[in-house]
Amino acid sequence: QVQFVESGGGLVQPGGSLRLSCASSGFPFSWYTMSWYRQAPGKERELVAQITSTGDSTNYADSVKGRFTISRDNAKKTVYLQMNSLKPEDTAVYYCKRAGYDTWGQGTQVTVSS
Question: What is the CA radius of gyration of the chain?
């Protein structure tokens, strides 16, 4: 059974940092591109960042370029999202997902507020 367990969210002040983790199981993690998405209240879920199976290529939404960094550890079957210079508009529930498949975890809440 494919599962994703996101963690690392919390309340942070504007300008602060958080590191999200997503532990994966139930599929050959190292074969797949992995993605981070987020969904803010009243908005549709949006793609934040993607990383290829080997980690040699990444891409980001324009809104987070230069502030967020996606990475992965295939031995630990975990994908990470380092978020710096956080803004109130980054407030959302963050999810990870295997590219091309529609299985989601429970997400982790990120709130950026003073």
Answer: 13
**Distance (Å, whole) CA 92 – CA 113:** 12
Residue with tokens 């429970």: 106
- Sheet strands (E) in 1-114: 3-7, 10-12, 18-25, 34-39, 46-51, 58-60, 68-73, 78-83, 92-98, 108-112
Write the pLDDT tens digit of every residue in 12-70.
Answer: 999 999 999 999 999 999 999 999 999 999 999 999 999 999 999 999 999 999 999 99
CB neighbourhood size of 69 (10 A): 16
| Residue with tokens 């983790």, as numbered in its chain | 21
